[in-house]
Amino acid sequence: MDKPHSKYLHLYAIVRFDPYLSGENGATVVKVFPSKELAEQEASRLREVNKGKQSTYAVQTARFVESL
Fold it and tell me: What Cα–Cα distance (Å) separates residue 29 from each residue in 10, 15, 19, 58?
């Protein structure tokens, strides 16, 4: 279960993995959403639109840090 953090707002990032790229260029944050449901819907859409390509899409929880 994805429990909210007491200090930080949760956001949901869509991450694209490109296995043909090496190092830090192999993963890219494509979009960020305020809800997991919206992020999952968009990731599913991107998987469908880009099927046949080598890229894969995953949803990752992130914390929004407004200031240090």
Answer: 15, 4, 15, 10
Domain regions of the chain by residue span = 9-64
The string of pLDDT tens digits covering residues 10-30 is 999 999 999 887 666 789 999
Nearest to 11 by CA among 41, 33, 42, 43: 33
CB 31 within 8 A of CB 14: yes
Q: Is residue 3 predicted with pLDDT exceeding 80?
A: no
Q: Indicate the DSSP class of residue 29.
A: E
Beta bridge partners, 9, equal 64
